[in-house]
Amino acid sequence: MYKLTPGGGTWSESVHYSFSGGSDGAILRAGVVFGNSRSVLYGATTRGGSNGCGGEGCGTVYEFSHSRGSWTESIPYPPER
Fold it and tell me: Domain coordinates of the chain in residue numbers?
């Protein structure tokens, strides 16, 4: 996942989070959407997850929550077993 930062009329790109391919998922799919408060961002992967499935069609739903100037990643689906 990339982060874009404005600065002096240009934008700089940096890696915000690298998915490991394990329980946090791999291969990002679809776009991302903001929750109602705009301090939560949701997206999906097509591989990985905590259910032991590693192939196509498995995946996760990931969530980034913004608080006190930083973002925290969590995996609400699939739930940990």
Answer: 20-77
